[in-house]
Amino acid sequence: MKNQAPEIILASASKSRKLLLKNAGLNFRVETSNLDEKQLKKDMEGTPVESLVLRLASAKAEVVYQTNKKSLIIGADQMLECENTLYDKPTDYSDAFEHLKKLQGKMHRLITGVCIIYHGEVIWTFVDQVSLEMRSLSDKFINEYLEIVGPEIFSTVGSYRLEGHGAQLFNHVTGDFFTVLGLPVLPLLTFLRAKNFMVS
User: Fold this and answer.
1) What share of the chain is helix, strand, coil (3-state, %, to 5)?
2) Can you give the residue ranges of every domain in the chain?
3) Is 43 a catalytic residue?
4) Which residue is catalytic, options 36, 77, 128, 176?
5) What pLDDT does 127 receive?
6) CA 24 to chain centre
7) Does domain 8-194 have CATH number 3.90.950.10?
8) What mean pLDDT is predicted for residues 43-49?
9) Measuring CA to CA, which residue among 171, 149, 184 is closest to residue 16?
């Protein structure tokens, strides 16, 4: 008789990550960590962005694990880097406008880290990145775009959603589309199947 698969918890408030896993048919629930990301980023200032996203992902998973010791916890985080500058989620429309103004006409990277904790141990980590070339944008277009997207822009690193109207912002994207959305789904599902955490 096979052991029963553990409950899977996504330690993320991201609607995109939740939708990606739901659409993939994974049986899971969401529990946010309410991690103080700003403090952790401050403590790790100067750390390579790949290490930082992985530490943030693992920290989120660690917080949720503390009250869910029998569950399998998936933590994830994403950061945007352009010309050695890291971008957080915009705080208001003015901030979002400035982000897009600085990114337009340039290449930038989205770096996503994933961590799985089970029985108190980190059993899998993964870091992936995507390169995106944003086209040159007029101020008028940026303002119209932000008006169309609305408040949901405040939950996105880089002030855009590539899966929606944000596709009009770009000339070229190199890398995994799922990683752009905040979760490298295929490597994650491959790992879960290999370890019999989901039906293969």
Assistant:
1) 40, 25, 35
2) 8-194
3) no
4) 77
5) 98
6) 16
7) yes
8) 86
9) 184
